[in-house]
Every structure is written in C-alpha cells, then in structure tokens.
Amino acid sequence: MNRRHLVAATAAALVAGAMPAAAQTYPARPITMIIPFAAGGPTDVVARIVAEAMSKNLGQAIVIENVAGAGGTTGSTRLTQAAPDGYSIMIGHTGTHAASVALYPNLRYNPVSDFAPIGLVNTNAILITAKKALPANNLTEFVAWLKANERTANNAHAGIGSVSHTTCLLLHAIIGVKPQSVPYRGTGPAMNDLVAGQVDYLCDQVVNVAPQVRAGTIKAFAVAQPQRNAALPDVPTTAEAGLPAYQVVVWNAMLAPKGTPDAIVTRLNQALVAALNDDGVKARLAELGADLPTGNLATPAGLRAFLEAEIAKWTPVIKEAGVTASN
Predict the structure, then answer these.
(1) pLDDT on residue 175
(2) Which site among 32, 89, 147, 286 is 20 to 30 Å from 60 CA-CA?
(3) 2 Cβ contact partners less than 8 Å away, ≥ 6 residues apart
C-alpha cells in the first residue's frame, strides 16, 4: 500500500470509528414504518409506494404497520415509545403533526421535539367535492347554496383532526358558515356515502378523490392550489372559480423517534430522496395527483422548520372554529 492509499484508508477508518457502531451496519434487519391510519387511505397508498422504493435502496424490507385511531395520534404516540435505532419510522401528516396541537389539549407528544424529522414525502392539493344531486354546478353556486342551507347542509369527513375535517374547517371559516359535521372512521366510508348521496360534500386530497371525479360519480368544484392539478386538469383552481382565499395544501412527512442517531437519519433521508427521484415513483405519484417536495423540504432541517410553521398556521384556524377532539 503506497502512502496516498494508506492516508485514505486511515481517514476512512477514523470516520467509521467516529460513527456509532449501529450506524455503520445500518440497516441490518427490516424496518417498521407506522402509518397512523387504516390501510387504503391516501397516506397509506403514498407510503407504500415510497417504502417499496426505499427498501431497494436500503437493502432491507420496510414493513408497513397500520396503527389507526384518534385522528392518527395513536400511531404517532406509538412511534415516540419506540427505540431510537432507525428500525421504527412513520409517515405523519398535516393532522398528526400540525392540527393535533389545537385539537388535542392533552396530546401525548410534541410534534416537533419528540421526533427526528427525516424529510417531506409529498404534498397533496385539496379538492372541494359534492354529491351528484347537489344543485350547485360550480364553486360560486356551491358557496351560495352552503350559505342558504347552512343549518341543514352536512359535511362528511374522516373524523375529528383528519385532513378532510381540518381543511373544510378552513373553508367554512373563509365562507363564514358552520354547517353540520358528519364524522366517519375514514375517508373510504365517507366517500361511499358521498357517492350514494347520503351526505352533501367533502373536502379531501386529490390523491383520494381523483378516481371518483374521473368516474363522474361526484362533482368537483375546485382544487385549492395556485395551479391546476395534473391528475384532474379540467377542474379549475379556487382562484379561477371565485374563491382565491381558499388555498390549502396538505402533506405527508417521514419521521423517526427523538434521539435517532444523525448518521441513521441521514441514511434514511438519502433513501427517501432516492425514492422520490425514481422515475417509477414519480409516475405513480403524479398519476395520483401528488406533488413532490421542493427546495430544502426534503431535508431533516427543512422539515423541522416546516412543521413549526404548519403548527402556527393551523392552530388559530382550529381554535377559531371552536373544535376539539372531544366535540
């Protein structure tokens, strides 16, 4: 071995020696990814697509564990109790790691300090949808109908604190109405009743409602983002449809327990970024209408700052609506 190779080998050994032993061999066994919602929902669908690609990069399987309950806070709490060794991670979202602060006065975790952020996974636009029989045919007519029928109109959602709940709370606040709330155990049964005409309207992620819109079983009034969504190019934006103040994008993020070694968080982040850059993953998420993170949102530091900003955004909206997990 010549001197140059000896110096390089010594430097590599020193770097390896400075890393925790577990990080040097990580991952040595399958990783559990907690999804704090039932199987088949939008977060679950996105998580499985990303997990499959990450497992190839990591060389170990990622096993999905659906831990539903309490608006996703049950699964989130489960992660805070897991060993910080990189073998337990989760996909949190707008409800579990932003809206939960105002909705759950006795929340058992801090959405920022009790987790090690890995990176933002994706963002999803919110779509305002309604049953086919609703007399309104566009967003302006829907707003007028909702104001005129505030006492009898009913809004389906996937439970207190869910994305379909909090995003409609924001819509109601902007319009100035407080219609009837009809909670379900998930967006699946809520959508079934919307299609059947048993409830009036639903605010939910494009990822979740696009198939029904394309099938023509429900009405789609507008997508709440600055530009039209590629999955539903014929649906206007809220700005185009006359309600520019309603701009809301929800998200999924990957997190580990607090105290997870930086080297392991970095490795998981690298695998996440590689998955999101995979052409197959991009195509599948684009078909669902999901958008990929930009800038530093795919980094641990960027995600931490983003979580803090989202908590600050949603807390006043929920408090103004006077909603908690107990009502």
Answers:
(1) 95
(2) 286
(3) none
Residues 316, 289 within the same domain: yes
Q: 118 with 131, same domain?
A: no
Nearest alpha carbon to residue 291 among 125, 52, 129 = 125
The last residue of one of the domains, among 177, 206, 241, is 241
Question: pLDDT value at position 67?
Answer: 93
Same domain, 101 and 193: no
CB 157 within 8 A of CB 165: yes
Residue showing tokens 């690609």: 53
Q: For residue 157, give both structure tokens.
A: 């959602």
Strands 115-131 and 31-35: unpaired
Residue ranges making up the domain that contains 168: 125-241
DSSP 8-state secondary structure symbol assigned to residue 297 = G
Domain count, the chain: 2
What CATH number should be reported for the domain holding residue 91? 3.40.190.150
User: Which H or E element spans position 135?
Assistant: none
Classify strands 201-205 and 154-157 as parallel, antiparallel or unpaired.
parallel
Question: Distance (Å, rounded) from C-alpha 284 to C-alpha 122?
Answer: 12
The pTM for the full model equals 0.83
Instruction: Identify whether 247 is part of a domain.
Output: no
| Run means of pLDDT, 10 residues per run, the chain, 327 residues | 42 45 83 91 92 98 93 94 98 93 93 98 95 98 98 91 87 93 86 96 92 96 94 96 93 97 98 97 91 92 96 88 68
